[in-house]
Design a protein that fits this description.
Two copies of one chain form a homodimer. The first copy, chain A, is α+β, with helices and mostly antiparallel strands and 113 residues long. In chain A, 34% of the residues lie in helices and 22% in strands. In chain A, a hairpin with a 2-residue loop joins strand 3 and strand 4. In chain A, helix 2 crosses helix 3.
């Protein structure tokens, strides 16, 4: 089966479908360190990565930011000394699209790249 | 008078003094777009910069991050499409040190550099 990180990101436009519970149940095991949170009623995916200092955190933010900008699906990146929190959701549909899960998996794969 | 951004950053170690009200009243007018907030009882300085897209926001985050790492006084940087929120405070003294105000002024000066 194709790994989550290798799946194609679909364009997420207004009216695109939210990820179904069945899709979520299938994808979450591939991103075990991510948490689904609800923020003002909007489902989001988040993971906090631990890095060894500020420079490492900033370097990771840059990698994630460049990946996201290439794909055109942009997270919130919270950079601090020794850690980066990444939050994905799809603003246009006010929730989680399959693309958010794919981006989470791709972000994980940047950690040791 | 030396501009705030050109003042020397003092090392902020445990036991260093919090900025006094007199110092705050003197420095705030030099950083008029910054807001003093209280987060869990800890005073912090924050400003949200508006940029034109994600790439510009990431580029600004990198500039601020590199400046901060050179000085050794690290903010929280929240990067999103079209904006970057910067938060400074001094963890070691759980509040605001003069260095936080100097760093805020230097961050402002990066905007059009």
């Amino acid at each position: 089966m194709t790994q989550l990180k290798d799946r194609e990101c679909e364009a997420c436009c207004k009216g695109a479908p939210l990820a179904t519970q069945e899709e979520i149940d299938e994808m979450m095991p591939e991103i075990p360190d991510w948490e689904m949170i609800e923020d003002d009623g909007i489902k989001k995916l988040t993971r906090t990565y631990t890095l060894s200092n500020f420079a490492e955190a900033l370097a990771f933010t840059i990698k994630v930011g460049e990946l996201a900008d290439d794909v055109g699906h942009h997270p919130t990146l919270i950079t601090e000394w020794g850690r980066v929190q990444v939050i994905f959701f799809s603003k246009k549909i006010q929730g989680l699209h399959v693309t958010d899960f794919i981006m989470a998996a791709r972000t994980d794969s940047l950690l040791n790249s």
